[in-house]
Amino acid sequence: MHNNTHRHHSLARWFSVSLLAAGVGLASSAYAQENLRFAHVYETSEPFHQWAEWAADEIEERTDGRYSISVHPASSLGSEEDINEGLTLGTVDMIYTGSQFAGHSYGPIGIAGAPYMFRDFDHWQAYAESDLFQEIAAGYQDATGNVPIALNYYGERHVTSNNPVNVPEDMENLRIRVPGAPLYMMFPRAAGANPTPIAFDEVYLALQQGVVDAQENPLPAIRAMAFHEVQDYINLTGHVTDSLITIISGTRWNQLSEEDQEIFREVLMEAAENNTADILQAEAELAEWFEEQGTTVNEVDRTPFREITVPYHLGDDANWDEELYERLQAIGQ
């Protein structure tokens, strides 16, 4: 037995050397396991982390151990800006990131992160599965070299505060934390608030210390980050139907064989579908849970909020043209 194993290794080594001589990469050899880093800013309690872990195991299994993936949650490899840069610097191989952050590198991909861009979840879902998204993803890949694989539903973003927000006027001069991408400022600015960019992992403290008076996020994120402990009201403005994009670094993608690219794509798309299902379910259950915790969940009429925002869709902060905008609006009509 021992001899056979030994002979097998020598053969494998000889085979690799021959391949190398023939100009074929070592990646084909049995023992060259590649280690990849998958980074995100979300808590380990979030579906995003759990499905990233699942995807890591699944990819390792389906590629017969050619790739092992370590998942780095909760901003452990840096803020969202950092991990986006990491894709290009080669310090991370895969990330989840908001459309708005991806929009830094290629404007049109940000359109999905604009406020009141989607009529509802069904409109978002139709976009996620559309040729239009594929086309925009290809544009992003041309611009950056990195490869968007799938859209994960992140949830409807709502304003949390210590005083109720019933109409846009209630947001006048409100110091509200937003993520550090310009598109997140579109809605608060339309409402006359003062949007303040702060990294995700610093928001709890900023609210607790009164650096800001409000923030906005979907219900599952509010629970995961325990923002309800430092905010009295969750106002259901639903101003962004938000997504995370799973993106793979171009350098890494180009090293994968076509078969492996297909495996990565399939697994990460399946993980995205599972994230989406889990977030939808959490959204359906959480309003009641927050009420039990003593947080007031405030149903608002979204119409006036939508009306003040829509004029900004083709304003100065729009990094897409009117044709793209009209095509997105037409989806699912």
From TrEMBL:
GO BP terms: transmembrane transport
UniProt GO cellular component terms: outer membrane-bounded periplasmic space
Localization of this protein: Cell envelope
Keyword Transport: yes
Gene3D superfamilies: Bacterial extracellular solute-binding protein, family 7
Signal peptide: 1-32
UniProt KW keywords: Receptor, Signal, Transport
Pfam short name (any one): DctP
Family, similarity comment: Belongs to the bacterial solute-binding protein 7 family.
Cross-referenced NCBIfam families: dctP, TRAP_S1
Protein name (Swiss-Prot/TrEMBL): Tripartite ATP-independent transporter solute receptor, DctP family
